[in-house]
Predict the structure of MFS transporter.
Amino acid sequence: MLLAPLRERNYRLWAGADLVSTAGTWMQVLGLNWVILATTGSAAMMGAVVMAQSLPVLLLGSWGGALADRLPARPALILCQALRAVLAFALLSGDSHVLIFAVALASGVISAFEGPMLGRFGSALVPRETLGSALALGSVLSSAGRIGGMALGGVLVGLTGPAVLFVINGVSYLAVIGALAAMRSGQMRTLPRAAAGEGGMVAGLRYVMSRPVVLIVLGLSFVLGSLGRNYQVSMAAMAAGPLHGGSGAYGLLSTVFAVGAVAGGLLLAGSGRSTLKVLVGTGVAISLLQLVSGLAPSVLGFAAVLLPIAAGAVVFDTVVSTRVQLDTREDMRGRVLATMGIVSSLSGIVGAPAVGWLADTLGARGGLILCGLVTTVVALAGAAALARLHGVALPVLRRPAEQPA
């Protein structure tokens, strides 16, 4: 199952281009963070830039999903990649805060339309039965691209400054454009278009609201994403606080998290088991591990718990994406994916400040433990709710059948 998606030529092109583009994106993220910290010394300013990228997804995501279900994806994606390249090269013109915020805001607007189109287009590159493995393999490539991009960017930013990172990212989008142009249309699955009168945002919202399984899965994604996945905040709080590790420990923990993410993606891609049972089981497991992580006595102890948390987080997120796509109509795919993107953005906007506030108020350990308790309760409640729905098979939550006398 692991390599099944790679049998498709179009997917191989897409996977290779995505790896290159992801590495370039994270190099630009590192370069922008360096510029912001060098000119302002403010971590809050970095958070404001992230928020500027997320807000357009919240405001325009539903519209982007509706367009994704109606427009041909390939030319639209080529346009989006070209615009992203222009934004990357625009950063070469200076380090003005106005420019940085303008680029972040424009990037968010592109993401609002590009995200649903990417999801819909990607699902057309592989047979339906290998979609779960394709999504898991995509998570592996994204994690690998992030590790490679951050590692190479960390070396280059000290040698050349951030401008080179922006150039590399701009050029990386050409790889995606080339891959899109080289794909063979005849080897793509044809996804149905929305019927007349069902192509708008309201129809998409009405459809999502009528799917209780999807609503529960998205609810779990929001809570576990906001309180259980903002480890960039909690790792820094633990390293600088009770673990007394400093910046070196934070770098180690970030590396461990990235390695765990790759391992989780490989595990899921190899098994191909993107079921609701795996979803709730993983959600409960990573929530309990988060609670345990707040009790870790040392940096190495915290890293040991963080590794399976990172692996489980990737499994959980990938299964969420798989179930949301497989359990909904293909002609609604773009709008459903847009809703998922909105939930993801909202969890980041709400969760990061909430986790930071809890760490400041209760201490890093107290914040982790409380968040772990909340996410465990929510994960168990979600599992129980899914078990009650007609047609959902979650054997771990059922009573054993009575044996005949």
